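Work Package 4 report. The design task specified in the project plan requires that, given a folded chain encoded as structure tokens, an amino acid be chosen for each position. We show below one input record used in the internal validation round.
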């Protein structure tokens, strides 16, 4: 489990988020919600150990994150960033990068690594892309490959920054369904999302950010009833009952 305890996060020029206390728990999908620039990406990078906290602490399984080495941390937390470089390698080679924390030096992939990488490609619906060079892929196809790389890292916690970026609607739904399956298998999943409807349909809990603060944490039902999302995002949020539960939709305020 990853715990943020009075966390202040940001960059040398100043804090982006202040005094955030939040837990990313096994068995749950946690959605991070809020407008552009509210600090969702910064929070995920700090939680993954990619940025040092400016204040407060990040705990990983009850121990300060700085007590874990980078390789140990990478065996526990995978982070899918919003943007990545595009090296001139095949999708399979990119996904195999997720196995680095589990390899010694020199890095030599074994049968287990190849099997895990292929399974990750299939889980991300990218199996047919394995031998394609990354520069030749569309943005949506590359996003599936990067998701597969995070899955191949085989960690207990997966942090996703806008995982549905560039994806068509079918693959957006499949990605969120995968996040649910990961949580149901006992993993901790946190995702920064801009699509409120997807977030509320698939998340167990959501954290709403604005003005450099964590404003509210709760279930989709609690957040819908509170009106906080409409207030922070500047939209009217409505819902209707479907066969498998609530279906949410947004429109501009009247």
């Amino acid at each position: 489990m990853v715990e943020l305890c009075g966390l202040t996060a940001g960059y040398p020029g100043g804090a982006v988020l202040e005094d955030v206390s939040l837990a990313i728990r096994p068995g749950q999908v946690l959605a991070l919600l809020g407008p552009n620039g509210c600090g969702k990406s910064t929070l995920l990078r700090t939680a993954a150990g990619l940025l040092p906290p400016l204040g407060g602490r990040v705990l990983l399984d009850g121990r300060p994150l700085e007590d874990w080495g980078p390789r140990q941390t990478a065996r526990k937390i995978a982070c899918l960033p919003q943007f990545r470089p595009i090296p001139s390698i095949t999708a399979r080679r990119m996904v195999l990068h997720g196995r680095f924390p589990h390899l010694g030096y020199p890095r030599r992939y074994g049968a287990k690594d190849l099997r895990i990488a292929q399974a990750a490609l299939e889980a991300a619906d990218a199996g047919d892309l394995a031998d394609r060079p990354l520069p030749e892929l569309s943005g949506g196809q590359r996003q599936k490959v990067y998701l597969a790389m995070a899955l191949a890292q085989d960690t207990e916690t997966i942090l996703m920054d806008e995982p549905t970026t560039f994806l068509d609607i079918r693959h957006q739904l499949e990605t969120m369904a995968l996040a649910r399956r990961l949580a149901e298998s006992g993993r901790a999943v946190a995702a920064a999302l801009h699509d409120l409807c997807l977030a509320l349909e698939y998340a167990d809990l959501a954290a709403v950010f604005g003005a450099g603060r964590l404003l509210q944490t709760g279930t989709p039902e609690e957040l819908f009833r509170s009106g906080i999302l409409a207030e922070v995002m500047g939209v009217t949020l409505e819902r209707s009952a479907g066969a498998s539960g609530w279906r949410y939709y947004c429109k501009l305020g009247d």
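The chain has a mean pLDDT of 93. Validation will be extended to a larger panel in the next phase.
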